[in-house]
UniProtKB/TrEMBL annotation:
Pathway: Amino-acid biosynthesis; L-arginine biosynthesis; N(2)-acetyl-L-ornithine from L-glutamate: step 2/4. The gene is argB. Pfam families: AA_kinase. Residues 31-275 form the Aspartate/glutamate/uridylate kinase domain. It comes from Sphingomonas hylomeconis. Catalyzes the ATP-dependent phosphorylation of N-acetyl-L-glutamate. One of its GO terms (molecular function) is acetylglutamate kinase activity. Belongs to the acetylglutamate kinase family. ArgB subfamily. The record marks 35, 257 as: Transition state stabilizer. It catalyses: N-acetyl-L-glutamate + ATP = N-acetyl-L-glutamyl 5-phosphate + ADP. Its EC number is 2.7.2.8. The lineage of its organism: Bacteria, Pseudomonadati, Pseudomonadota, Alphaproteobacteria, Sphingomonadales. Keywords: Amino-acid biosynthesis, Arginine biosynthesis, ATP-binding, Cytoplasm, Kinase, Nucleotide-binding, Transferase. This is Acetylglutamate kinase. Its main location: cytoplasm.
Length: 299
């Protein structure tokens, strides 16, 4: 008798597709905001995997909206130009020259590279910054940090660092409806006419909230949020995050990342997930399989 059963490896592929079925049904028509961090833009292979994942989401009826960073790339350019960089709580102190360079790197080169990768993967993307169609309005950020020597709060002027105070979703809706994937650089203009450099996590969170995104993914270069022993914390709510901040478990770039996740879920985004962008197809594994990855932030 002939054995008609497919080879086990082939059968496993079919099972993976079947496992994805309930997720495909659940997410059809939903908006997912994907924050692609500068540290996650590793090798050309990882960039290709990322673009394929985004194009696949679009192909199965999800509306992906990409917001990208580029902190390390801005740092490299500033170094080449002999300009010094300083960070306060994960935010780059930005003078007029730095703002110009940040815009050049983010909205000029990285934005178009990502648009290109998505095109190579068979999708159609349009790159824009918050300035285009005036869709994001920014306001200058102030920052108070504890002065360790004197035990007092000290106000730090971060220069042209902004935060989004208004998001007009019409341009994003128009692009998504035309089957075009928006790719957004974290730069916007203020009511004062200045160009503001916005932390990419903050920009992505504001856009996720304005779009009422079902999921908000933040791809970075760590497995997720780690505790003091270096173990992955798989599940966090706003109260747990406040504790981690107070006891110093989270620092640097993880601070705006988690602040953003909290703001997004409090504004109605179902869940935010911090994912390891160094893992090939991390996003697909998170969305379409039973094994969650990274750190889930929920209300
Ligand atoms: N508790 C923590 N768990 C994980 N990462 C942390 C933690 N505290 C600080 N970090 C830092 O946050 C970084 C991620 O933020 P960031 O450098 O801004 O990434 P991205 O460029 O992807 O936005 C990690 O690489 C790590 O150095
Ligand atoms: C104000 C501020 O800090 N802006 C960031 C914008 C880029 C960014 O956030 O990139 P990542 O997501 O790769 O860190 C910066 O100048 O680095």
């Amino acid at each position: 008798m002939t054995n008609h059963a497919p080879a086990p490896a082939l059968l496993a592929k079919a099972e993976t597709l079947v496992e994805a079925l309930p997720y495909l049904q659940r997410y059809a028509g939903a908006t997912f905001v994907v924050k692609y961090g500068g540290h996650a833009m590793g090798s050309p292979e990882l960039q290709r995997d990322f673009a394929e994942d985004v194009v696949l989401l679009k192909a199965v009826g999800i509306n992906p909206v990409v917001v990208h960073g580029g902190g390390p790339q801005i740092g490299a350019m500033l170094k080449r130009l002999g300009v010094e960089s300083r960070f306060v709580d994960g935010l780059r102190v930005t003078d007029a020259e730095t703002a110009q360079i940040a815009e050049m790197v983010l909205a000029g080169s990285i934005n178009k590279e990502i648009v290109g990768w998505i095109g190579q993967a068979g999708g159609r993307a349009v790159g824009l910054s918050g300035k285009d169609a005036g869709f994001v309005t920014a306001e200058k950020v102030g920052r108070s940090t504890p002065d360790k020597l004197q035990g007092i709060e000290r106000h730090v002027d971060l220069g042209f660092v902004g935060e989004p105070v208004g998001v007009d979703r019409r341009i994003i809706d128009t692009l998504s409806a035309a089957d075009i994937i928006p790719v957004i650089a974290p730069i916007a203009i203020g009511a004062d006419g200045h160009t503001y450099n916005i932390n990419a996590d903050t920009m992505a969170g504001a856009i996720a909230a304005a779009l009422g995104a079902k999921r908000f993914f933040l791809l970075t270069d760590v497995a997720g949020v780690l505790d003091k022993q270096g173990e992955l914390l798989t599940d966090l709510d706003p109260a747990a995050i406040a504790e981690l901040r107070a006891d110093g478990t989270i620092s640097g770039g993880m601070i705006p990342k988690l602040e953003t996740c909290v703001a997004a879920v409090e504004a109605g985004v179902d869940a935010a997930v911090i994912l390891d962008g160094r893992v090939p197809h991390a996003m697909l594994l998170e969305i379409f399989t039973r094994q969650g990855a990274g750190t889930l932030v929920h209300r």
